[in-house]
Amino acid sequence: MPVFRKTVEDMEGYIPGEQPRDRRYVKLNTNENPYPPSPQVLEALRDGIGDNLRLYPRPMADELRERAARLYRLAPENVLVGNGSDELLAILMRAVIDPGDAVAYPVPTYSLYDTLVTVHGGVPMHVPFPSDFSMPPELADVAARLVIVCNPNSPSGTLIPPQQLGPLFRRRDRLVVIDEAYVDFADTNCLELLHELPNVVILRTLSKSYSLAGMRIGLALGAVGVIGELAKVKDSYNVNRLSIIAGAAALRDPRWMEGNVRRIRRTREALVRRLVELGFEVPPSQANFVLARRPGEDLEAVFEGLKRRGVLVRYFAIPGLRDALRITVGTDDEVAVLVRVLEQLVS
Ligand SMILES: Cc1ncc(COP(=O)(O)O)c(C=O)c1O
User: Fold this and answer.
1) Residues with CB under 6 A from ligand 1
2) pLDDT tens digits for 282-296?
3) pTM of the model
């Protein structure tokens, strides 16, 4: 149909991980948290359901924004709340990219970046990771308006230590986005950079560590001027009333999240040990998932075999990743099922 922009007609849409409707799978494909959100969230939500749902929410999600600012020792003006961090990525593109502008990021990484850059008329600039997923030195000097570093990276699970990101910030004519969707599962994070640098935005989400993927809550943290520009291009009421309530309650109870993270990290270590015993190579993971590789083999049949036996993981049919499965760290029981089925499929 001639009505659509050529860029849109020519592009593939982003394909999210499967969200099965009917069957009960052991679901280890989209990095959700296997544990429930804080009871305080559920209680606040129950209290929040009432007559005032007829009213629009506060445009800047004040209650959640203020709670996030307190938790991260920032001012509310340093925080923008989004309908998931995916929306914040789109807002960043909308605010920064003119047609033809380059957006650079190390690959392989979160493939939604490609989709969003293309939709906004930008040009994805892929900078390959070295084989150990360390910082690609070329990234420091690329000519791009926007640089994104997914840290910990998906699908590798690996983390570039904050000190090694320093060269990225030398040029002040660009914005550097650190996508920290998985950082609560890591040993360190980049929050300190916010106090030193004007051109960095850190993205957080409550989807993973806070067990709230279903509520769609993301946070962009940055300098007051940067957050102000981003706020100009967001939808007026981008975060709904219940999500604001849920997010604020979750951030009031970070201990609950930390307890779940400790469990997931313990399960992660056990899962990695078992995968290595089964002959997989696993880059060191700082996230709530691991990348299990068998270099040179195509793991599509293993992925399909797992699915037939009720275990969903993620397989990426793209060059360089066909020899890998990305496996979310579930409960100990879920991981035991996965390992049992994998034993049958790969031995
Ligand atoms: C690297 C990365 N960034 C952002 C997101 C999006 O998270 P949200 O649920 O906050 O939109 C994901 C979700 O899988 C992700 O893997």
Assistant:
1) 31, 84-86, 110, 150, 154, 179, 181, 205, 207, 213, 218
2) 999 999 999 999 999
3) 0.97
